[in-house]
Amino acid sequence: MKTLCVVPCGKRKIWDKEDKAKSGAAAAKDAYTGAYSRKCKEYAEIFYPRNWCILSAKYGFVFPEELIPGPYNVSFNDKKTCPITIDALVQQIRQKELDDVEKVVVLGGKSYSAIVEKAFQGKTIINPLANCRGLGYMMHKINEAIKDKKAL
């Protein structure tokens, strides 16, 4: 059974740092620099080393080595920023050959998980952080899993 881990992108990006502001493209795994995003990537690299991706509100499902062209500020929570649509995500799933995935583990909040669930309709979606009350609880749970070497 093939499982995919989907991690969130995050608002903070490599281009937010003054010395990187004028630099060009960055690998997706390096582009998102927020503490939560970094922790989720660490978790994915440990427990799903060959089967993880980042869900970007602008670019959709991106693999760790895919290049993100440069700075942007798009959010699923702000429709005015024109986030990627569910239809586009479904199309990406086919294009990136993710449609053979049977289970999807989502490291994000309920609204983030709902987007993944709509895109991967008919697949088993697991959100081990769904009952966490906030980012701090989520970080703690991920840290414990990494420390104990036990997937969530």
What overall form do the CA principal axes indicate? globular
Q: Nearest-angstrom radius of gyration?
A: 15 Å
CATH class: Alpha Beta
The class by helix and strand makeup works out as: alpha/beta
Account of the protein in words:
The chain is α/β, with parallel strands linked by helices. It has helices at residues 28-31, 35-47, 86-95, 110-119, 135-148; strands at residues 3-8, 26-27, 52-56, 60-62, 67-68, 103-106, 124-126. Strands 4-3-1-6-7 form a five-stranded mixed β-sheet, sandwiched between helices. The protein has a two-stranded antiparallel ribbon with strand order 2-5. Helix 2 runs parallel beside helix 5. The model has no long low-confidence stretch (mean pLDDT 92).
Quickly list its features.
single chain, 152 residues, alpha/beta, Rossmann fold, five-stranded mixed beta sheet, two-stranded antiparallel sheet, 7 strands, globular
Summarize the structure.
This protein has 152 residues and is of the alpha/beta class.
Topology:
Elements: E1 3-8, E2 26-27, H1 28-31, H2 35-47, E3 52-56, E4 60-62, E5 67-68, H3 86-95, E6 103-106, H4 110-119, E7 124-126, H5 135-148
